[in-house]
Amino acid sequence: MAPIDIQEIKQKTTKNVLFLSFRNIGIQAVSTLGFFILTILLGTGEVGLFAIVAESVGILGYFSDIGLAGALIQKKDEVEKKDLQTTFVIQQILVILSLVVISFVFQKLRLTKSYGPKETWIFISLCFSFFAASLKTIPSVMLERKLNFKLISTIDIIENISFYFVAVIFALWGFGAYSYAIATFVRSFLGLFIIYRFSPWPIGFSFSYPSAKSLFKYGIPYQLNSFISMAKDKLSNIFVAGLLGRENFGILSWAQKGPRIPLSFMDAIMKVTFPTFSRLQDDPGYLKKSLEKSIYFIALFVFPASAGIALIAPSLINIIPKYTKWLPAIIPLYFYSLNIAIASITSPLTNAFNAIGKITLTTKFMLMWTVLTWLLYPYLTIKYGYVGTSVATLLVGLSSVVVWIVAKKIFDINVLRITFHPFLGSLLMILIVLTFQNFSFSPLINLVGSLLIGIVVYGLFTLTVSRQQITWFWQQILCFIPQKQK
Predict the structure, then answer these.
(1) What pLDDT band is residue 152 in, cutting at 50, 70 and 90?
(2) Does residue 186 lie within any of the structural domains?
(3) Domain around 471
(4) Is residue 339 one of the residues assigned to a domain?
(5) What confidence tens digit (pLDDT) does each residue in 213-272 have?
(6) From the CA atom positions of the chain, what is the Rg in Å?
(7) Backbone φ, ψ for residue 457 (5° rounding)
(8) How many CA atoms lie within 13 A of 259 on its CB side?
(9) Please, are residues 338 and 394 in contact by the beta-carbon 8 Å criterion?
(10) Cα–Cα distances in Å, from 291 out to 74, 88, 329, 348, 410?
């Protein structure tokens, strides 16, 4: 790859990461506020119901394109019209078959478990959302290959805001769990309309066997990892929901929500780096530097954010009337926060393995995590309830040390060295904030004081030990902001 191409990719990658990061912060602010209001207005059972149905329908996504979208993004050569239309045809066949199967299964469950209109409408809305998402795949792939995430980001923002705005409004009007269904329909319609309005493609139903064969060569191993991931995450969650019931699964869902907030920064980097790493396959030196920088800045933000959420959660619950129903979720939240910190520095590594074509290696890791999940989740859930589930999640996450060892051999990177300063700063922040919280203050003072002390302690530590990296990051932000013409 020519030096000019490297520089172009570098500029686009940095710009897109910053753009998606700022965008994700906005989205997370809206979704967190929306979820927060909904969990005040709705009961634990209603939150659990939506989480269970969403997990069930989410399984369909793993069968929707058998990895062809990932193959289109990863493809080194230009994507042709026949590639797009072949992918579209195969995907829609799989989508229709998946919807038929899941509808049949739901009908059986509706009769055996006496599901009513509430469950049925949530199910229908999520099925429509799945179908609409499949129609957005090709336009999204075209934008990702160009490393142009602005339109995708804009659609995500509109979808997110519309979902929570509509859900909260209808929940205030007393629609209960139906609010989720109405909001899901609105979000799906808006997203589908906007992406086809601004990113049209030569939609058509044609099939090219050579094109399909080429895409399957990468897509099937890629999707195999997704299937294994489904067995590890989605199926295990549904199984756990069956063991716990709606109420307890609602508590578990609340415990997962907070720790996932910091992942918005990681998601921004992951979304950009997959196509970027794919284009850097032939330049291992720059690939290594990009991967190290990605891991460092993910840890820099995710580590303290995860710790901060765990530290302020008890005070937040105790401040709000009628919110103490979520107090049982605090202990699971602690374990999920630790797991998120581990996952945040492991995911970029598996992302890099996929980008350079080492799909079978990722498959082995996924199999390891899946086996551990199905060994630990049932046993610990039955024995200790939802707390046991969260402990099992952390134990599975700790096995990621194997990925770090392999990454050292392939990319010559040391994960512990890269993340040492963010880890040390977060640990120092935790110790000082816990010391402050030991004094008998009101929940409001605890909340505000913990936030201020945590930010100041971590900020000063980071500026002291990582000044060079922070200076670089600040320079990128300044370049990102348009300068006024004099």
Answers:
(1) confident
(2) yes
(3) 3-480
(4) yes
(5) 666 665 566 556 666 766 677 778 888 888 888 889 889 989 988 888 877 666 656 555
(6) 23
(7) -65, -50
(8) 27
(9) yes
(10) 17, 32, 35, 7, 12
- Quote the number of domains for the chain: 1
* Tokens matching residue 384: 């200790």
486 in a structural domain = no
In this predicted structure, the answer to whether residue 3 has a pLDDT above a threshold of 50 is: no
13-34 residue pLDDT tens: 556 666 666 666 677 777 778 8
Global pTM value? 0.74
Q: From CA 97, how far away is CA 254, in angstroms rounded? A: 33
Q: Are 432 and 460 in contact (CB under 8 A)?
A: no
CA 415 to chain centre: 21
Look at residue 158 in the predicted model and tell me its pLDDT: 85
Per-residue 3-state assignment (H helix, E strand, C coil) for the chain: CCHHHHHHHHHHHHHHHHHHHHHHHHHHHHHHHHHHHHHHHCCHHHHHHHHHHHHHHHHHHHHCCCCHHHHHHHCCCCCCHHHHHHHHHHHHHHHHHHHHHHHHHHHHHHHHCCCCHHHHHHHHHHHHHHHHHHHCHHHHHHHHHCCCCHHHHHHHHHHHHHHHHHHHHHHHCCCCCHHHHHHHHHHHHHHHHHHHHHCCCCCCCCCCHHHHHHHHHHHHHHHHHHHHHHHHCHHHHHHHHHHHHHHHHHHHHHHHHHHHCCHHHHHHHHHHHHHHHHHCCCCHHHHHHHHHHHHHHHHHHHHHHHHHHHHHHHHHHHHCCCCHHHHHHHHHHHHHHHHHHHHHHHHHHHHHHHHCCCHHHHHHHHHHHHHHHHHHHHHHHHHHHHHHHHHHHHHHHHCCHHHHHHHHHHHCCCHHHHHHHHHHHHHHHHHHHHHHHCCCCCHHHHHHHHHHHHHHHHHHHHHHHCHHHHHHHHHHHHHHCCCCCC
Residue 485 lies in a domain: no
pLDDT, mean over the chain: 79
Instruction: Judge whether 20 and 272 are in contact, CB under 8 Å.
Output: yes
